[in-house]
Amino acid sequence: MQSAGRVLKVFGGLVLAAGLTTSVAAVVSAAPVTAKIEKVVKVGPQRQDLTISSPAMGGDVPVTVLLPQDQSGSRGTLYLLDGAGDKTDVSDWVAKGHAPEFFADKDVNVVLPAGNGAFYTDWQQRDPVLGKPQWETFLTKELPPLIDEAFNGDGNNAVAGLSMGGQAAFALASRNPGLYTGAGSMSGCPPVTGIANESYVRATVAKDGGDATNMWGPWGAPGWADHDPSKRLDALRGKNLYLSAGTGIAGPLDEQTKSEDGLPPETVTALGGGLEVGAYRCSLEFALVLRARGVPATENFHTVGTHAWPYWAKDLGSMWPVLSRGL
User: Is the separation of the CB atoms in 56 and 48 below 8 Å?
Assistant: First the structure.
């Protein structure tokens, strides 16, 4: 009987071991796929173009990183977002916004995602044109750890952008207050609820061929309020905030406007003026809400200015001192 008992014990041990091995294998095979840097192209001593493999985005995302001259110590990180429109694999801030020149002597990492930003949010439904991007997950969960590890980030982050990217900056900061010390919007429309604001956002998405109903739901759906920073003001309290926009009236900087999409410069300027009128109204509305709730922000509303790169490039000089306080 003792022999039979030993045999049963041995047999039971083998079964248990086999079960544990199967369980471990199952856990290993079920391990989540994480984002990673797939490729690095060193464009210069202070610029690297990355290819990020992103599970959230379902593929590769091009990201440019601008570095300080002295890269020996740790530093904060500014995430700088584009506006809407046709995109390449390099952020428009590089060529059109002259970000490399501006930040060349600044002690900060500047992260510039490229591609169609689609309001830099997690889309609810798949769109026939834009797909189902999960930008917020990518920008707030996947990308920061990679940047901090690869480029000595110290965990202090700010987020800013122009137009669509300006709205996204405030939405991201209000929805992820623990991640960002500040937010900045140039010619954006931070609040997205209400007929006028929702219409502005829907028109922006439609310009890129998408349907904003797939982004945040039907007109007036809860998804719109969920991404409206004016509904989350307490999350912005105590942060470094910057708002700017022009009246839509053309100024001297519009003399730099070039032809686009086959349109002459004067037509481009006129269209930019119309867009900026909407951004000015929306940004001023947001500024008034911030004032009413006692949330300080640096306002920089211009008497002239259209929806154009020369104004945004110039505004970097006004925004940086505000956001740098938290970096």
Answer: no
Give the strands of the sheet with 153-162, arranged side by side.
36-44, 47-54, 59-66, 109-113, 75-81, 153-162, 180-186, 240-246, 298-302
| CA distance linking residue 228 with residue 247, whole number of Å | 23
User: Which pTM was predicted?
Assistant: 0.89
Q: Can you tell me the mean pLDDT for 268-277? A: 93
CB count in 10 Å sphere of residue 302: 21
Q: Are 245 and 302 in contact (CB under 8 A)?
A: yes
In this predicted structure, what is the pLDDT of residue 172?
A: 98
In sequence order, the 6+-apart residues with CB closer than 8 A to the CB of 309 are 92, 96, 97
**3-class SS at 208?**
coil
DSSP 6-57: HHHHHHHHHHHHHHHHHHHHHHHHTPPP--EEEEEEEEETTEEEEEEEETTT
- Model confidence over 20-44: pLDDT tens digits? 444 444 444 455 689 999 999 999 9
- Count each helix (H run) and each strand (E run) in the chain, helices first: 12, 9
Structure tokens at 305: 């200015």
**CATH fold for the domain made of 32-326:** Rossmann fold (3.40.50)
| Terminal Cα distance for the chain, rounded | 74
Contacts of 56 (CB under 8 A, 6+ apart): 35, 122, 134, 137, 138, 141, 142
Q: Residue 33: its pLDDT value, please?
A: 80
Residue 293 per-residue DSSP state: T
Angle, in degrees to the nearest 10, between helices 265-292 and 195-207: 140
Token couple for 221: 């759906």
Torsion, CA 291, CA 294, CA 297, CA 301, rounded to 10: 10
Burial 86-105 (b: 16+ CB within 10 A, else e): ebeebbbbbebbbbbebbee
